[in-house]
């Protein structure tokens, strides 16, 4: 709804020239990444999933180079690696050895494979968005509207095919108060997506992936500073890596623009 209203009042801008099917590809890879990531939680714990998804900028960069012919300076690779490594060190949580020992090797392997599939889909989404930016005039709210439109269609077919839509209706009938939570979540998500797609359209998917990867890091770091929680040495090293990577990326990015 927010996107429709936004599009209504932007008639004076140049039209989005991106083919509609490209948004469909983005929707498929986006949903694939989300599905594989959530499904992996059946075999790996949540800290492992968070740790795996913290590597998102790497496939976005690699597949952007391979599929979208995007070129980055060497220092960019170094900065992204520093940021990812820093977030991984900061977010890593040692698993309970007893619990880990009870999980079979196959289960761990399947969970990790699903995480790799999720990261690959993230990279494919970034590569398609990079091609869209390079070859067409892209508007952030058109991108948001069309990708969500495709996603709604795909999910609607999936829900009807699997019968989960009827389970959802039954659940809402038993717990009607959940509808308010769903509405609140949807509004917050829509507002957040505005900024995500504006970042993708104006600065590229790699920058967006770095922002979304480091947001949890800054949230936890903020709670540490505000509430006096303690960090171990490994986490402080991670903090140093992230800030070093972000600082170098900002410095060399500005230096390149001046040249």
TrEMBL record:
Molecular function as annotated in GO: UDP-galactose transmembrane transporter activity; UDP-glucose transmembrane transporter activity
> Which GO terms of the cellular component aspect does the record hold?
endoplasmic reticulum membrane; Golgi membrane
From which organism does this entry originate? Answer: Acropora cervicornis (Staghorn coral)
Q: Which family does it belong to?
A: Belongs to the nucleotide-sugar transporter family. SLC35B subfamily.
Q: List the subcellular locations.
A: Endoplasmic reticulum membrane
Does the record bear Transport in its keywords?
Answer: yes
Q: Which Pfam families match?
A: UAA
Is Transport tagged as a keyword?
Answer: yes
UniProt keyword terms in alphabetical order: Endoplasmic reticulum, Membrane, Transmembrane, Transmembrane helix, Transport
Q: What is this protein called?
A: Solute carrier family 35 member B1
